[in-house]
């Protein structure tokens, strides 16, 4: 009421009213068959799947009362949100909370100070790949680019098997079992296969569309293109960019890209669009493309322009994000602390395949890292308090950090940092081939997820200006579970001084029998005799 009155009084200068958007989410199991090929158990919300797309306006408070009706823990993570002052709403079990136990609840409250395209997903094991994921759009009060309509295209490589089965296969001690084939099937907005009509994009002549592309897969890389239509990139991972003409967009898991597409003037023809999975974890970079074709429709009865490989107007050039320039031109920070991380896959001494940073494979501590920060006094400054297996890295307040990730694998990996958008400062080949070196301009693009191709590295910079506990991990759901994660503990003093945990935090820990204080094992100080050290690399550390 007050809002309406105010805006009447100030009719000449429209003011933005922020509101509280409250959603009650009962998270439970359902059956679904999104591609018409395979009925399976999925995880949905309030008896429906897929979970609803969430759209709010900049400045709104989004509160989600999550109730867990599953038979295992769950949690919700708002991918790309910086969570300034609210690290305990970041939604990572073992890191920023204990997880929501079966029949438990947790209210996540998000102050939407950022704008653009994000997504909300479970962060318990590889659970989001069972369908607990949805786009989360924050409309800016003043969008920097003009367009007539906004469309969300959630792209996803969908497995016909439960995430736990796939993970069990990948973590088998048998090489034969590990290499048994499994493949993802392409879904667009949770539809695929024989359900193609439901993935049609309806265009009207002359209009300009903002297509928000999100990759919410478990593994792999997706690329997107439309026959005979130009696309201009205007946003990556919530950072608005100057328009850049591209012939296709490539996204790895976790990434988002908005493009502007201007429709044709006539309704004489319809056009094919493609959303192909072009690399995946199992067969490395040479894997055959898994093509997906659907329709940009101007008129129901118009003929379809569906080109062959030879006549297609869609080029598949490498999508170079280092060349993008943000609208708010900011210079990158310098380097006070250098964090080199070598990403590898190897068989460890438990005969299983693990993924690692610097040969350390992550396992979540018994006590969430945030609990340890808050309850171990001055010893919160000792990395050892958080346990070897959580791969803790302490960041001092307001220092300039450069994370250098060297991908020593034959697979691409998409690396995601919580709590920050990093400047993409440089990319290049690990073998030092200068021809492959790519520097950013003076105002590098900022992202929260970066694809690093095999045997390449990236230098990522950010300022440690956001106290909290933030995970860095490969966003391929299974790789993260196989250990490719590390924990940044940014400004432990400030976290301890400035954090009031919501009551549900300790309720949930108690229900799960997780200690409310202490180091990674729930003991005092550096007393960690029962800490699991392994598995270790076969060659030793
Ligand atoms: C679930 O929690 C509610 C409220 O705390 C409680 O009343 C109910 O008995 C619980 N149900 C089960 C199956 O534990
Ligand atoms: C949300 O963030 C803005 C900007 O930092 C701040 O002014 C405001 O007080 C915050 N609101 C809440 C409810 O935390
Ligand atoms: C999403 O990313 C994954 C891995 O990074 C990739 O394999 C997959 O093809 C991508 N899918 C789309 C639709 O971009
Ligand atoms: C629309 O038609 C006009 C006039 O024929 C032409 O100049 C313009 O380029 C067309 N626009 C598009 C997007 O095809
Ligand atoms: C377009 O052509 C490809 C290759 O011939 C075919 O597989 C696909 O089904 C066609 N798509 C549509 C929408 O007709
Ligand atoms: C990790 O192990 C590999 C293989 O044993 C070795 O070549 C490499 O130097 C190790 N890296 C680090 C950072 O310890
Ligand atoms: C990468 O591929 C090469 C060539 O096929 C092979 O020799 C090497 O062992 C592979 N490396 C890894 C880490 O899988
Ligand atoms: C610690 O918190 C208190 C109360 O909020 C505040 O006054 C003080 O400035 C904080 N100290 C530091 C070093 O942040
Ligand atoms: Cu990976």
UniProtKB/TrEMBL annotation:
Record-level Gene Ontology MF annotations: copper ion binding; oxidoreductase activity
Q: Which residues form the signal peptide?
A: 1-18
For this UniProt entry, which segments traverse the membrane? none
Task: Give the matching InterPro entries.
Answer: Cu-oxidase-like_N, Cu-oxidase_2nd, Cu-oxidase_C, Cu-oxidase_fam, Cu_oxidase_CS, Cu_oxidase_Cu_BS, Cupredoxin
Instruction: Give any Pfam family that matches.
Output: Cu-oxidase_3
Superkingdom to which the source organism belongs: Eukaryota
Q: Which UniProt keywords apply?
A: Copper, Metal-binding, Oxidoreductase, Signal
* This protein's record includes keyword RNA-binding: no
Provide the Plastocyanin-like domain boundaries: 28-142, 149-280, 364-492
Q: Which family does it belong to?
A: Belongs to the multicopper oxidase family.
Under what name is this protein listed?
Ferroxidase fet3
Taxonomic source organism: Coemansia brasiliensis
Q: Which lineage is the organism of this entry classified under, starting from the top rank?
A: Eukaryota, Fungi, Fungi incertae sedis, Zoopagomycota, Kickxellomycotina
């Amino acid at each position: 009421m007050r809002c309406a009155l105010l805006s009447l009084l100030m009719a000449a200068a429209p003011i933005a009213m922020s509101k509280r958007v409250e959603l009650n989410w009962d998270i439970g199991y359902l059956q679904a068959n999104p591609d018409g090929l395979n009925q399976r158990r999925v995880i949905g919300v309030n008896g429906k799947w897929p979970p609803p797309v969430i759209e709010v306006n900049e400045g709104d408070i989004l509160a989600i009362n999550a109730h867990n009706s599953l038979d295992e823990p769950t949690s919700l993570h708002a991918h790309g949100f910086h969570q300034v002052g609210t690290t305990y709403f970041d939604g990572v079990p073992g890191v920023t909370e204990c997880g929501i136990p079966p029949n438990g609840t947790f209210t996540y409250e998000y102050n939407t100070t950022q704008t653009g395209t994000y997504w909300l997903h479970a962060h318990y094991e590889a659970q989001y790949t069972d369908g607990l994921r949805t786009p989360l759009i924050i409309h800016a009060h003043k969008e920097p680019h003009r367009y007539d309509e906004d469309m969300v295209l959630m792209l996803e490589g969908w497995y016909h098997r439960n995430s736990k089965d796939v993970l069990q296969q990948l973590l088998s001690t048998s090489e034969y079992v590990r290499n048994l084939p499994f493949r993802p099937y392409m879904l667009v907005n949770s539809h695929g296969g024989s359900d193609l009509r439901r993935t049609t994009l309806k265009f009207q002549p002359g209009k300009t569309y903002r297509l928000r592309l999100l990759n919410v897969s478990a593994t792999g890389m997706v690329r997107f293109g439309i026959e005979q239509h130009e696309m201009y990139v205007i946003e990556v991972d919530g950072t608005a960019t100057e328009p850049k003409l591209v012939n296709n967009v490539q996204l790895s898991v976790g990434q988002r890209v908005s493009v502007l597409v201007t429709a044709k003037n006539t309704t004489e023809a319809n056009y094919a669009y493609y959303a192909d999975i072009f690399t995946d974890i199992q067969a490395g970079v040479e894997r055959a493309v898994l093509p997906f074709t659907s329709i940009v429709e101007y008129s129901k009865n118009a003929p379809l322009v569906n080109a062959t490989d030879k006549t297609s107007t869609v080029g598949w050039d490498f999508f170079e994000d280092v060349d993008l320039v943000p609208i708010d031109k900011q210079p990158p920070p310098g380097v006070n602390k250098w964090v080199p991380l070598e990403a590898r896959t190897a068989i460890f001494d438990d005969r299983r395949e693990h993924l690692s940073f610097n040969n350390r494979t992550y396992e979540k501590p018994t006590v969430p890292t945030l609990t340890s920060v808050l309850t171990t006094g001055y010893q919160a400054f000792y990395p050892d308090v958080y346990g070897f297996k959580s791969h803790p890295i302490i960041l001092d307040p307001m220092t300039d950090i450069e994370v250098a990730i060297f991908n020593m694998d034959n697979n691409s990996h998409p690396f995601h940092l919580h709590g920050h958008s990093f400047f993409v400062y440089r990319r290049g080949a690990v073998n030092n081939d200068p021809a492959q070196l790519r520097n950013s301009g003076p105002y590098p693009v900022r992202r929260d997820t970066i694809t690093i191709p095999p045997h390449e590295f990236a230098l990522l910079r950010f300022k440690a200006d956001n106290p909290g506990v933030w995970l860095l991990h490969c966003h391929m759901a299974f790789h993260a579970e196989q250990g490719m994660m590390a924990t940044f503990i940014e400004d432990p003093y400030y976290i301890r001084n400035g954090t009031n945990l919501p009551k549900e935090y300790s309720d949930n820990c108690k229900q799960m029998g997780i200690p409310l204080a202490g180091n990674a094992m729930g003991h005092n100080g550096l007393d960690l005799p029962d800490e699991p050290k392994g598995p270790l690399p076969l060659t030793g550390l």
